[in-house]
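Final report, closing paragraph on structural work. Over the funding period we assembled a curated collection of sequence-structure pairs, and we close with a single example.
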Amino acid sequence: MARVSILGSGSYGTALALLLHKNGHEVILWSSTEEKAATLERTRRNPVLPDVEIPSAILVTPDLHWACGGSAPDLIVLAASSIHIRTLARASASSVRKGQIVVNVAKGIEEESLKTLSRQIEEELPQAQVAVLSGPSHAEEVGRGIPTTCVAAAHCRQVAETVQNLFMCDSFRVYTNPDVVGVEIGGALKNVIALAAGIADGLGYGDNTKAALITRGMAEITRLALAMGARTETLYGLSGIGDLVVTCASMHSRNRRAGILIGQGLSAKEAMKEVNMVVEGVYAAKAGLALSRRFHVAMPITESINEVLFDGKSPADCLRDLMLRDRCVENANLCWEGRPQ
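Its predicted structure, as stored:
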């Protein structure tokens, strides 16, 4: 049995707390405010994950320093929104011991620096060993014990295997992967493509359109990830195509739901307010576009989503312009009759 502190009591943090408790671990669930912690402690229900009860053995606390250091955790899980990861890591720095394994489960890229979340954590917690847990894993299903498969990525094999061993059970299978940047880029940018898929749904388009967006979206995510040093195999795995498919297809996806609302005529700000949760793709869109320019990679869907979100372009015009782009081959690496295309 291990002691695990989960920093963030949103839907995914709560779902992972339930999973780890089921696995026999001692779980501490940190909440950002005393009021929220008290409510969770009293009701044993989380409004963002209302179908499950939080067992009394899971300790809820608003004390960040005790959760990170005083409780002597074997593992710390960062389960906040991507835009808060650096701040949370910095706030906990004085309590995190040397060699502490810290697992990030958020998905995103820092808009200002264009750094991945693990890189931000490493800067704020240089004494820690950082890992990433990612893949197609909606909190609503993880919390109910529906079979789910994810990837634990770390630069150190032993760290990845430690995460694998702590999380893995009959309803949550975990693979290991050394390609941290590939896992993170896939997890962050699939949210941008999910916005596009949702917009297509909101416009009343069909399955053909969604399949095209998923496929071509995967192509541009892969181009960028490879330019940043990732491996193709990672992008074709759970944290790449797996996470992209589930996020574009499921109504559990806040990014798809926000996209649907935008396609129906709401602004990005109005859509986020309606969804009432952080829509990570809105923040990842700017970072993805900036990275595409830094690495000289074509990302037409990401560029179009930025035009809709921030430049006032209509969703219908966005989709039409994507269809009318210049003619090109599907894959420049394929040859025609033995000759380069």
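The mean pLDDT is 94. Strands lie at 3-7, 26-30, 59-61, 75-78, 101-104, 129-134, 148-154, 172-177, 335-336, 339-340. We thank the funder for supporting this effort.
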